[in-house]
Amino acid sequence: MKKVILLRPRGFCAGVVRAIDVVKIALELYGSPIYVRKEIVHNRHVVDELRRAGAIFVEELDEVPAGARVIFSAHGVAPAVRQQARERQLEVIDATCPLVTKVHLEAVRFARQGFTIVLIGHKDHDEVIGTMGEAPESTVVVTSIQDVDQLEPPDPRRVCYITQTTLSLDETRHIVARLKERFPAVEGPAAQDICYATENRQLAAKAVAPMCELLLVVGSQNSSNSKRLVEVSKNSGVPAYLIDDAGQLNPAWFDGVQTIAVTAGASAPENLVQDLVLSLRQHGFDRVEEMHLKEEDVRFTLPPQLERITPRLTTTSLP
């Protein structure tokens, strides 16, 4: 019988839950308009839902009226953006994920100590742009071992690395290993920067690989952690596709397939996963099993700007 294996954990992480809650609570407290710089999280469905609720998404702060209220996305911002907000007298609510803030603080510390900071990540990603802004003169972004081989720091004995939170565990491990070969004194964060949710979803994708012929990842194309799940599956020998929702299913993918694994990136809502499972039933995948690898119980409190007003509220939207 054809079947679907639903991976768990999947979908929303604590940082995404917190960011979405921030927008919803701000709209309840203050009403529209509430401006949001960039996508609050990288998921088209989430952004569209919040836009319908009254949030106004902008690319840059100069699109926000002076003195208005603006939310910074979960991916974090550079200090220059914070300064611009102050100059425009904007009321800022910061929804930066605490795990991203951790990386920002590492960048500041290493810069003060005179290190060349090697930031492992994707140059155009919002998170990397924000992190690099903490110490732009000291930071160089690398995405591959080849990039590491081209590094020429002023002092090879004063090199450190930090990483984007949503990278491939395996790829990052190889890059760090190469850094250690080239710069034996290289320093890194006390604990890895790749977040718990990214790690758990990748480990689940690896674990299910021997049991399926296809992996479907629910998530948007600009979601870094979702794209990494596709890569992990392909590297494990299992074809994988990233889809926004069930409407993007291609029946040709199911030729010769008896078992499909389904997961979701950390910014993808659970209702999209359930819609996908219903669609797969219509293609004969009637049996649904859940593969539960690890329990996630991480919760983050609201930003202080909201917690002062709503002291009893904490993020509670995790599935």
What order do the SSEs take from the amino end to the carboxyl end, as H and E? Answer: EHEHEEHEHEHEHEHHEHEEHEH
Number of alpha- plus pi-helical segments = 11
Please state roughly what percent of the residues sit in beta strands, choosing from under 5%, 5-15%, 15-25%, 25-35%, 35-45% or over 45%: 15-25%
Structural class: alpha/beta
Alpha carbon gap, first and last residue: 29 Å
Low-confidence stretches: 312-319
The CATH homologous superfamily of the largest domain is called 4-hydroxy-3-methylbut-2-enyl diphosphate reductase, catalytic domain
Under the CATH scheme, which architecture of the largest domain would be assigned?
3-Layer(aba) Sandwich
- Share of helix among residues? 25-40%
Quaternary structure: single chain
Q: Judging from the principal axes of the Cα atoms, what is the shape?
A: flat
The tally of strands reads 12
Instruction: Summarize model confidence as the mean pLDDT.
Output: 96
Largest sheet: 5 strands, parallel
Strand order of the largest sheet: 10-9-11-1-12
